[in-house]
Amino acid sequence: MTVAVGLCAGRSVGEEAQAATHQAGREEAAEAHPDSLLNALSFSSKRDPISVSAEGLEFDYQTRVLTYKGSVEVTQGDIKLQSETLRVVLDDHAENRVKEVVADGSVRISKGPRWATGGHAEFDQAKQTVVLSNDAVVHDGSNEVSGDRIIVYLNENRSVVEGGNGRVRAVLFPSKSGTPMVEAGTR
After folding, report:
1. Within 10 A of 18 (CB to CB), how many other CB atoms are there?
2. Chunked in runs of 10, what are the mean pLDDT values of the chain (187 residues)?
3. What's the sign of the alpha-carbon dihedral 148, 153, 154, 159?
4. What confidence score (pLDDT) does residue 48 get?
5. Is 65 exposed, middle or buried (0-12, 13-18, 19+ CB in 10 A)?
6. What are the chain's domains?
7. Which residues contact 179 (CB under 8 A, 6 or more apart)?
8. pTM for this entry
9. What distances in angstroms separate CA 137 from CA 19, 35, 96, 122, 178, one per listed residue?
10. How many other β-carbons are positioned within 10 Å of the β-carbon of residue 185?
11. Contact status, residue 145 vs residue 161, Cβ threshold 8 Å
12. Where are the beta strands (DSSP E) in 15-111?
């Protein structure tokens, strides 16, 4: 395990990382459908603590960027994010406020029977968007929506699926009432 160690304003890298991830957990997000996987993607819609584990952590004090490397796992309550790397950009104007989170390499986000995968994910706190790309797939039970890129507008409770060079694909199974069951955030 390799961790860059340094001090900034009397805090160690671990303390900076812990403060930043706890602040992200305290920020409020719009929650039209709190049980939706897509609304949960911001990792800021709950007050549960955020736990991050990785093989290494580096903090660049000048750019205020935390980079977790190697088998990264982030959990908050029943939400889990996995990736090869995770870059957390802190806001320059607010102490320990998360501005952006970028996950790369075998990204998987899960909450109960709902899960999403892709090669890259960007969480923009200011814009309240999540962009999942590089063969993005969202599953809600046996229902599936896929495309090259899926953009989730958290405040608007809507998503856009783009096909890129391929086509958008959806497989929806009817509920017992005969209508397809679609997660509210994927309409």
Report:
1. 17
2. 26 43 38 48 65 95 93 91 95 80 94 90 88 92 91 85 89 76 47
3. negative
4. 81
5. middle
6. 2-132 (2.60.450)
7. none
8. 0.71
9. 32, 18, 31, 15, 24
10. 25
11. yes
12. 50-53, 56-60, 65-76, 79-90, 98-111
